[in-house]
Each structure stands twice: as structure tokens, then as C-alpha cells.
Amino acid sequence: xxxxxxxxxxxxxxxxxxxxxxxxxxxxxxxxxxxxxxxxxxxxxxxxxxxxxxxxxxxxxxxxxxxxxxxxxxxxxxxxxxxxxxxxxxxxxxxxxxxxxxxxxxxxxxxxxxxxxxxxxxxxxxxxxxxxxxxxxxxxxxxxxxxxxxxxxxxxxxxxxxxxxxxxxxxxxxxxxxxxxxxxxxxxxxxxxxxxxxxxxxxxxxxxxxxxxxxxxxxxxxxxxxxxxxxxxxxxxxxxxxxxxxxxxxxxxxxxxxxxxxxxxxxxxxxxxxxxxxxxxxxxxxxxxxxxxxxxxxxxxxxxxxxxxxxxxxxxxxxxxxxxxxxxxxxxxxxxxxxxxxxxxxxxxxxxxxxxxxxxxxxxxxxxxxxxxxxxxxxxxxxxxxxxxxxxxxxxxxxxxxxxxxxxxxxxxxxxxxxxxxxxxxxxxxxxxxxxxxxxxxxxxxxxxxxxxxxxxxxxxxxxxxxxxxxxxxxxxxxxxxx
Length: 483
Fold this sequence. Notes:
By secondary structure, the chain is mainly α. Helix content is 68%, strand content 1%.
């Protein structure tokens, strides 16, 4: 009887609180109710498009424009100006962007070589398969080759339409996005760790050989370095300043990331971590629920069609995961030469964590014969981990662990670099924390020397040493026209 009474008391209290929160969120203001109803209508329309056309390879085109109208509508509906004026150092941001482009654009048609086979496939598919009929276009809300979302191929197509159907034309979008990722990383780190750490991290990322390489490859991996920092930045900034616009930015980045590389899925887990970490920073539960609700509505409205496709056609959506899944007998046998699962367990842990400072990338997508960090960057990275743990800055630590789990431990080739691209902002963040510690310890000149040495080492490695190596898998010319 006592348990029943306790449960009944909790039940009544929970629903009373829910009613109170709902009343605070909606109130008696008709405009608030209209805004919520309109947002739900836009989201349901987006979900309906995905549901109705999930099994159609070709669509008329109006479905895309209807979805885009829903996206623009829900963004405009919730986005508000900040109560505190946004006054970034525009010269600094332009400098970072210019530096990033300088490392990523020149020689794009021959550095790191000709096409990788996957780049060739993306370019050929984008050119030949999107507009095969004057009345029908490829459904942008389903998956295409290698189970990658087909919307990305439209970006590649229009990029080549503008810059030419060439290697440069296919790769330029990656170079631009990789450069914008530097700015998103700077803003994210500044909102959590401060301006100095953000500047150290962004300058490193400008020249970081790993980031530079995947910004020069015409695949969708590098988009992870834009979407994930952007969603973290929007969430943290909006939460701290009680700014609905931050929730819109977070939801926008989370929603659009679903149309790109699978690595960005870790952003969802990072947002859960941020909710846990930031929850007690404000006592207004209605405000917190409303903020999270905006993130959810915006992201679902944007990702609705691909989400419905994944639910209706899970095998097609997850086909790529099945291909690279590492815990199959043949994958275990190839990695360690036997079917010893315990030995393979430790093999996966060691290589998925050791890829940062010990084990070279094993894939033909890069194959630099070095780990992801070398020289002083590797030492500072390890120091940054210790600093982050001491400061209880769990975001970059969790970011790395999630990447190593989903991009290494669970997959074949646990140290394959394409799966770790999403970790680039976190890697630079940890190095930035260590450089900031050196600066604050009374050695600012040493911090600058270390940063300059990291930039020079990465520049010399990538543009001199790496380019002098065999071209790995980058040997395929631009695909000829069919027939």
C-alpha cells in the first residue's frame, strides 16, 4: 500500500509539473500557440514527404522544394536575435578562413593526386544519375552509392556545374567546407574554453595535415568537422544566454548532418552530454524544456525525410555499416589471423585508441605512414587529455571516445583514418588546452614556438614528404562520359 501511495504521489506530481511547464511554455498568448502549431505542421509535412516517397528512386522535384520551404519556415519561426550583441573579431575570422583556404585550394586538382576510386564514383554518379529524365530527379532523401545519402551528390553536381566537370570542380566543396569547419571549431571552443584556447586550436587546425588532407578529397567525411562543432556551439551558446537562436543553430546542424557522413551521428550523443552537464546552470525548467524542444523540432523537420527512409528501409540505410562492421568472422580472421574474440577485443581497443599517437592510418584514403599526430602535437595532445580531465571538460574527451568506439572499435581496420575525421576538432581542442596551459604557466613565447613548430611540421610533412610518397589510391582520372 505504501508503494502504491508513493507511486500515486509521484504520478500526480509529475503530471502537475508537466502541466505547469506546458502552461509556462505556451501561456495564454495566441501567437505562441500558433507558432507551436505551425512548427508541428511543418515538421509533419517533412516527415510525410519522407514517408510517402521512401520507396521511390525518382521524384518530380516539388517534394524537395516543399521540404526546403518547411526548413526555411521553421528556422525563421524560432530564430531570434541574441540579447547580447554578436561582436566577433571579423578580421580574426577572415584571417583563419583565408589561412585555411590557402592550405586547401591551391593545386587541388593534383594534390593529393588524381581521384580515389570513391571520389571517381561520387563524381560519375553526380554527373550521370541525378537528372536522367527531364520530368524526374533522383530522390535526394534516400541513400545512393555505398549507402551514402544522395543529397550530397547534388552539392557535388552543382559544384562541378560552376567550376567545371574536373577534379578541381569535384573537390572544391570539400576545401570550402573544411575551411568553414575551422571557423565553427573556433566558435565552439571559444564558447566553452575561452578565446585563447580557441585561437590555438583553430590555428593548428588550419594547417593540421589530417584536416588538410580530407579537405582536399572530394568525399563527404570533412562535413563532420563543420556540423558537429556548429551544433555544439549553438547548443552551448544558446543555453548559456537563454537564446532560442542557439537552439535553431544546433537543430539545423544536427538535422543537416544526417544527410552526410555517418561520423556526425556522435553529435547526438554529445548533445545528451551537454544537457547533463549544463542542466543545473539554470533553474527554469520550462526554459530548458523549451530550448530542447526547439532543437528537436528543427532537427526533425530537416532530417525528417531521411529519417523516414531509414525507418522504412533500414537494410538500405545501414548497408554501409554492414560492409565495414568489424565483428564478423572474416574481419576478425583478417585482423589477427584467428577467431580469438578476446584477443581481437584488445586488438580493437589498442588500435582504435592508438591511432592518434602510435599506429599509422592503414587505409588507401590517406596512408601517411604516421599516426594522426606527430612531434610536439602528439605530446601536447596527451597533455591536453590530462588537462581536460582535471578541468572536468568532458566534451572533447567524450568526443574522442565516441569516435574511437563507433569509428574504430566496432569496425574493421580500427585505425582507418576516414572514420576519425569527425574527431579533428576535438584533437585540435586538446592540443589547444595544452598550449594554453603552457602560456598560463608563464611561458607565452614557448607556447607560440610550439604552435609555430606544429604548423611548420604539418606543412612540411603534407606538402613535401607525403607528396613524395607513392600516391596510394589516388590514381584514377576524372571518369569519362558513359557510352
